[in-house]
């Protein structure tokens, strides 16, 4: 699949997901290229259909895009709940275990997700996999002592790589932390790995989102299809 085809599928999933937002809702808005299409469509609905809702965003990037369309964005602590959060993902398997954080927004994404009544992911079909892990697993790490955390990951065989920006400096998250990508190739025991990562001092959060999502809208050449998680 080339990038144009992939973008078309992402766009179709984003447009489909935008139908879930209704007047008066509080909606979590994720991060990434698929979510950009979602926010474009919500912006269209705001201007053409008079849609009015409140958004909580998972990154400053999404906040800027949404506010550019006149969408009302508030801080997560200014709402008592989020009706539905729509976000992208890097991989998802048949047990609804996924990897997120390709766009370095995993910490805010997880905080918004766990405070949401419903979670919906929008992906193109290439993201649906048998076993997660081919996509490098992002881990958000505090800069102080990050070198030691990376060495511990190396000893465990996690193949860590500090994510670098185009300017040659480490990527910084919206919380000013680093991202370390683990090149694991496959993750057979995601719960064990999640437990190991979150109990490593210096790790703030990891990109394993295990059985958290309610629905996945998959951009498919035959039209968007919906995978529903009945085990949540
Ligand atoms: C950002 C994310 C994104 O949702 C994920 O990387 C998917 O991005 P895209 O829609 O650009 O493929 O987790 O941290």
General description of the model:
The structure is a single chain. The chain has 232 residues and is α/β, with parallel strands linked by helices. The chain folds into two domains: 3-129 and 211-223, Rossmann fold (3-Layer(aba) Sandwich); 137-207, Alpha-Beta Plaits, CATH 3.30.70. The chain has six helices and 14 strands. The strands form three sheets. A seven-stranded mixed sheet has the order 3-2-1-4-7-13-14. It has a four-stranded antiparallel sheet with strand order 9-10-8-11. The chain has a three-stranded antiparallel sheet with strand order 5-6-12, with helices on one face. Helix 1 (3-18) packs across helix 2 and helix 2 (33-49) runs parallel beside helix 3 (60-68). It binds ribulose-5-phosphate. Ribulose-5-phosphate binds at residues 30-34, 87-90, 100-106, 109. The site of ribulose-5-phosphate has 17 residues, from helix 2 and helix 4.
In short, what is this structure?
The chain contains six helices and 14 strands.
- Judging by the overall fold, what is the CATH architecture of the largest domain? 3-Layer(aba) Sandwich
Number of domains: 2
Average pLDDT number: 98
**Tally of strands:** 14
Query: Total number of helical segments?
Result: 6
Overall form: globular
- Given the helix and strand composition, which structural class is it? alpha/beta
Q: What are the salient characteristics of this protein?
A:
seven-stranded mixed β-sheet; 14 strands; Rossmann fold; alpha/beta; four-stranded antiparallel β-sheet; 232 residues
């Amino acid at each position: 699949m080339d990038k144009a085809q992939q973008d078309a599928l992402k766009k179709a999933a984003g447009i489909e997901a935008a139908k879930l937002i209704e007047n008066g809702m509080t909606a979590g808005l994720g991060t990434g290229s698929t979510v950009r299409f979602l926010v474009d469509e919500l912006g269209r609905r705001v201007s053409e259909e008079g849609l009015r809702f409140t958004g909580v965003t998972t990154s400053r990037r999404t906040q800027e895009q949404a506010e550019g369309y006149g969408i009302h964005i508030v801080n997560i602590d200014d709402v008592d709940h989020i009706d539905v959060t729509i976000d992208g993902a890097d991989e998802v398997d048949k047990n609804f275990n996924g990897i997120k954080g390709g766009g370095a927004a995993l910490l805010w994404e997880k905080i918004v997700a766990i405070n949401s009544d419903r979670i919906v992911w929008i992906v193109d079909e290439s993201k649906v996999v048998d076993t997660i892990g081919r996509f490098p697993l992002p881990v958000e790490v505090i800069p102080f002592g990050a070198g030691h955390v990376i060495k511990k990951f190396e000893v465990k065989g996690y193949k860590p790589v500090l994510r670098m920006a185009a300017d040659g400096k480490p990527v910084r998250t919206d919380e000013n932390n680093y991202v370390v990508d683990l090149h694991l190739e496959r993750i057979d025991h995601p719960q064990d790995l999640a437990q190991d990562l979150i109990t490593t001092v210096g790790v703030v959060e990891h990109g394993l989102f295990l059985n958290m999502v309610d629905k996945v809208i998959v951009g498919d050449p035959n039209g968007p299809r919906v995978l529903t998680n009945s085990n949540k």
